[in-house]
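USER:
Class, as today's exercise, take the chain set out below, and explain how the chain folds.
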Amino acid sequence: MIRPHTLRRYRFDDDVSVSEIGEAILLATPRGELSLSVRQRERRTMFHHLSDGGADVASLLSIVGGAATDTVWVYRTLEKFVRAGLVVESIGIPSAAVIRRMVFDDTGGRAVDRVRVDPTAYLRADPDGMIFECARSTSLVRVTDWRLPAVIATLAQASGVPWRELTWPEGVDDALAEAVVIALLETGHLRPDEDSSPELREWSFHDSVFHTRSRLGYHDGPYGGTYANASMRAPLPAVTSASDAPSIPLARPDLADLSRTDPPLVTVQESRQSWRRSGPRAVTADELGEFLYRSARVRAQRSTDREDISLRPYPGGGADYELEIYPLVNRVDGLDRGLYHYNPADHALVPLSPWSDGLEALADEISRTAVTDSYPDVMFFVTARMGRLTYKYEAIPYALALKDLGVLYSTWYMTATAMGLAPCALGGGDSALFAQVSGVSMWAEPRIGEFILNTPDPTERRTAPAEEREVPE
């Protein structure tokens, strides 16, 4: 009878090769060559077993010897190579799954009667097949045949039933099912049915995955500024124009004069608030020009050995400045109604579309989100040219775009308050609708933010907890 533990075999990953020179073991890995001094022949033999299809832990222990020091050496060696990503675990003969761990755990099984699939676990495709992944797990499970999803589906549909009493699909024997269950309990893809995580229940599935996969700690995949796509394409330009249409130059304020007349920062911070209703007069084209000049223009550009970068009034990750600004003008003295693109290098608006039914739908959406019964004077749609970030970064591009968006929001709030205008950031919006109406790609340049700008409505003025706040004139 096949025993479950014999179906769990450790081996070197496919991109690791082993050779032996005297008493040294040479490991060729993607990160370079590693030389290990291994005097005992039995221990050198274990490395070859790990290379030639692998072996279960009991077999490895028998190869090395039965002494306590040998046992400690085997476990420490496995743990070191598992943590380094050089040794993986295969489940089943033939393999139904290959597990890449960040933490070595070989408990030999737990006394767990009832299990459930972790709520943050998911099955996804990748270029080499299918992956069973879990936001709360530090292990990645590669699916190598249909039996693993069959076991997972059976467990998911039988929550609360002791797993040893389940009837597995034809072709999945009890030994393989037990090996899968115990391994996935160790990796965290399965949890004891009584496992209680009240704080996790308040996280959506998507938020939990986004958090753990855009931070370090729960995965060992590529992360940060790796320039992984540099070999496949050129970097996107630092500044782009959404249209070849003639642009409309905007007003450029005198910054030296503003430095003398602007209210102090503490006044701006204490006066800041969100205004939703439009004021009695329209925002002017000069005010819109000053607002964008002070907050979003390109101050300077330069080239690095990798790409062109720019300097703007708000900080941006890696100076890549992926955010693009599309003002939807409803009521601006000096500008026609319609959708524009802001060119930060020329400090100009490029007309994209006159007012239409599609723009009306966008304005309706903004009004509903802002909870106001009229269209704001200016509605800003902020997109992210993801290619600016994905050229350089891995794992963090979307998270970085959202952080940059938050910085832009803060800059807009401070700028508008200092100018005596009425700003308000909105919490979400219909990215698909914007892509449909504007023609801007949903994935190359997704809409990630929305912001409205008016003149203040005096009836909307609010008070701070201790004192009435003055709006800078």
In short: Residues 107 and 186 are 8 Å apart (CA to CA).
